[in-house]
C-alpha cells in the first residue's frame, strides 16, 4: 500500500467479447434466472471508456497510476497505450488477482462483488478514486476535489433509511394512489452499507460520482469482519442482499472522522437511452456556458441511445476532451 499518492481504479468489461458472452450465457443457464443485472447494456461499451481514460490523463495528470480491473480482457486501445508515454501509468488487473483465495465465485458479472475486493490490488495507493467506466471528467480537477489530507471528500446528503419512511411503516398508504418508495437498487445498497458501519436509522446517500476511498479503512474492516467478504461476493449478479462497498467506506470514514462533506453534486448524469435530443443539447449547452460547473459526467446506456444522440455526445466529448489518440501524443 503506497501512501502520499492517489490512484484511479476503473472496472471495465467488453460485453461484445465472444468469450464473455459465452461465460454469461452459461452462468444464466446454470442458475436458470432472469435478472436486470444481466441486461446487455450493463456490459456493452461503445467508446465512452476511451473518453474516461483520456479525461483522466488530461484533467487529472497528478494521478500516480490508473488501474483497469477486468476479466482478462484488453481494451481496443491497449496497444496505443503500450506505445505511448503513459505505458507505465496504466495497468490491467485481472479478476483472479483480487479474488485470490475466493476463486470459487468466479466468473462474476457483479459489480458489487468486484468493488468489495478492489482494495486488494497489488501496489494500490492508500488513497484511490473509484470510477465506473462511463464516468468522464469534464473539467480539470485537483487532489483536493477528492481528499483533504487524510480525509475523503463526500458529495451527497443524509437521508432516513427506507424502512423508516412512512409508506414502508404504514402499508395502508399503498392503496391511496401514492407511489411507493423504491425498495431496491443503489439507495438500498447504500443504506445496507450504513447498517454495516453502525448507522441504524440514517444513511449518507452519495449520488453517481467518482468515489474517493481509503485502503486502510477497507483492510481494517475486512480483517475484523472476514465473513463480510464471502457474504458480499457470492452473488453472480447484483443482489439486493448486497451492500455497496464504496458506501461502506463512506460510512466508516464518517464514523472515524475521516470524511468531509461538501454541498455540491458536481456530476452531470444523463441516461442516454431515455433523454430527448432537445434536453441533451440543453444539458451540454449548460455545461459549456458554465452556468453550473460540472466536474464529472456520467453517461449511462450510451449503447442504447439513438444514433443522432450518440453522435451529438461523442462529438461534444471529442471537442471538450480530445480523442484518446490526441491525448496520448
What secondary-structure arrangement, pairings included, does this model have?
Layout: E1 2-11, H1 18-31, H2 48-59, E2 66-70, H3 78-82, E3 90-94, H4 95-98, H5 111-116, E4 125-132, E5 135-137, E6 147-148, E7 151-155, E8 157-160, H6 166-169, H7 186-196, E9 202-205, E10 211-214, H8 215-224, H9 227-233, H10 245-255, E11 259-262, E12 267-271, H11 277-289, E13 296-300, H12 307-321, H13 324-328
Parallel strand pairs: 1-2, 1-4, 2-3, 7-11, 12-13
Antiparallel strand pairs: 4-10, 5-13, 6-7, 8-9
Distance between the ends: 31 Å
Please give the number of β-strands. Answer: 13
Structural class: alpha/beta
Number of helices: 13
> What share of residues is helical?
25-40%
Low-confidence stretches: 176-184
CATH architectural designation? Alpha-Beta Complex
Cα Rg: 20 Å
What's the domain count?
1
Q: What's the mean pLDDT score?
A: 88
> Beta fraction of the residues?
15-25%
Strand numbers in spatial order across the main sheet: 3-2-1-4-10
Largest sheet: 5 strands, mixed
CATH topology: Spore Coat Polysaccharide Biosynthesis Protein SpsA, Chain A
**H/E order of the elements?**
EHHEHEHHEEEEEHHEEHHHEEHEHH
Protein name: Stealth-like protein
Domain Stealth protein CR2 conserved region: 42-151
Domain Stealth protein CR1 conserved region: 6-30
Family: Belongs to the stealth family.
Amino acid at each position: 500500500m503506497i501512501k502520499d499518492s492517489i490512484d484511479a481504479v476503473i472496472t471495465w468489461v467488453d460485453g461484445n467479447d465472444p468469450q464473455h458472452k459465452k461465460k454469461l450465457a452459461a452462468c444464466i443457464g446454470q442458475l436458470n434466472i432472469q435478472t436486470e443485472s444481466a441486461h446487455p447494456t450493463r456490459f456493452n461499451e461503445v467508446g465512452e471508456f476511451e473518453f474516461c481514460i483520456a479525461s483522466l490523463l488530461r484533467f487529472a495528470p497528478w494521478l500516480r497510476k490508473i488501474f483497469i480491473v477486468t476479466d482478462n480482457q484488453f481494451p481496443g486501445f491497449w496497444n496505443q497505450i503500450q506505445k505511448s508515454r503513459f505505458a507505465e501509468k496504466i495497468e490491467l488487473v485481472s479478476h483472479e488477482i483480487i479474488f485470490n483465495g475466493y476463486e470459487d465465485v468466479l466468473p462474476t458479472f457483479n459489480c458489487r462483488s468486484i468493488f468489495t475486493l478492489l482494495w486488494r490490488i497489488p501496489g494500490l495507493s492508500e488513497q484511490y478514486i473509484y470510477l465506473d467506466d462511463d464516468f468522464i471528467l469534464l473539467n480539470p480537477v485537483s487532489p483536493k476535489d477528492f481528499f483533504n489530507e487524510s480525509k475523503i471528500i463526500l458529495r451527497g446528503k443524509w437521508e432516513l433509511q427506507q424502512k423508516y419512511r412512512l409508506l414502508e411503516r404504514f402499508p395502508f398508504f399503498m392503496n391511496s394512489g401514492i407511489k411507493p418508495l423504491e425498495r431496491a437498487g443503489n439507495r438500498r445498497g447504500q443504506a445496507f452499507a450504513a447498517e454495516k458501519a453502525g448507522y441504524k436509522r440514517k444513511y449518507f446517500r452519495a449520488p453517481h460520482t467518482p468515489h474517493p476511498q481509503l485502503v486502510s479503512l477497507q483492510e481494517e474492516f475486512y480483517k475484523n469482519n472476514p465473513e463480510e467478504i464471502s457474504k458480499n461476493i457470492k452473488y453472480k449478479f447484483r443482489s439486493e442482499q448486497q451492500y455497496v462497498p464504496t458506501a461502506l467506506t463512506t460510512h466508516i470514514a464518517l464514523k472515524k472522522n475521516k470524511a468531509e462533506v461538501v454541498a455540491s453534486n458536481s456530476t452531470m448524469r444523463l441516461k442516454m437511452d431515455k433523454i430527448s435530443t432537445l434536453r441533451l443539447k440543453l444539458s451540454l449547452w449548460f455545461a459549456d456556458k458554465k452556468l453550473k460547473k460540472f466536474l464529472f459526467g456520467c453517461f449511462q446506456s450510451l449503447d442504447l441511445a439513438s444514433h443522432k444522440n450518440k453522435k451529438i455526445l461523442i462529438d461534444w466529448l471529442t471537442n471538450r476532451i480530445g480523442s484518446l489518440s490526441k491525448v496520448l501524443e
